[in-house]
Amino acid sequence: MKSIKPTTLADQAYQAIKDAITRGEFLEHEVLPEEKMAKRLGISRTPLRDALNRLASEGLIVQSVGKPAVVAGFNKTSALETMELRGLLEVNNLEKISPHIDEIFIAQLRDNVAAQTEAILTNKYDLFIEIDREFHLLLASKNSNTAYKELIAKVNASVNRSFLILSNTVPQSASEALIEHKEIIDALEQRDVTHAKNKMIVHMNNVEKRFLTYYTNKENNI
User: What PANTHER family does this protein map onto (predicted)?
Assistant: First the structure.
């Protein structure tokens, strides 16, 4: 049985603000005054500032000296640029973690996929997107390069925000992504890193295609 880790006020504030941003409760470029945010969350400014710093590191908000934080903007070009960077990082990450893959790690990946499946079966697609993010962070967790892991976390947060803003119900793409995740795990379990990298490339390319479909539909008000 795993021990229960205590959740700090900063952690709770981070998650609450992140959820509000990704679900569109806070609009692009909306100002987040510290006093107002602290009062709304029922906490002091110290844990709030810790939460804001973490959100800024993930690219979800923008902080400037002497000014309140602002929700980061979203546009097609920046989203595609982030996806391109994410693809390079994710594919290369498989090469870096390949010597550290074992049966326990494969089992953890399978458990994550099981949670993805449950989210799809219960029509909780916003939850699926979060578990999808956790899948990629789990792959990065075997990377000994801390900066690399942090960068993967940042780009994944940005990509997930794009998908949540564009569509909160993506049953078709969720099922497709689930299959792609399983194929990556199968290749890793067989210790075929080249095949796993190819499957990740396919996955990243498909993520971009799905994003473009949603973006086009939004522009056309479909």
Answer: GLUCONATE OPERON TRANSCRIPTIONAL REPRESSOR (PTHR43537:SF24), TRANSCRIPTIONAL REGULATOR, GNTR FAMILY (PTHR43537)
pTM confidence score: 0.76
Asked if the domains at 9-71 and 76-219 fall in one CATH topology, the answer is: no
Packing angle between helix 103-121 and helix 125-141, nearest 10 degrees?
A: 170
pLDDT in tens, 107-127: 999 999 999 999 999 988 878
Identify which of 162, 208, 116, 218 has the alpha carbon closest to the alpha carbon of residue 22: 162
Q: Which residues contact 5 (CB under 8 A, 6 or more apart)?
A: none
Backbone φ and ψ for 142, nearest 5 degrees, come out as -85, -5
Give SS3 for 43: coil
CA 79 – CA 63 distance, rounded (Å)? 20
150: number of Cβ within 10 Å = 12
| Class of the CATH domain delimited by 76-219 | mainly alpha
- Class of the CATH-defined domain 9-71: mainly alpha
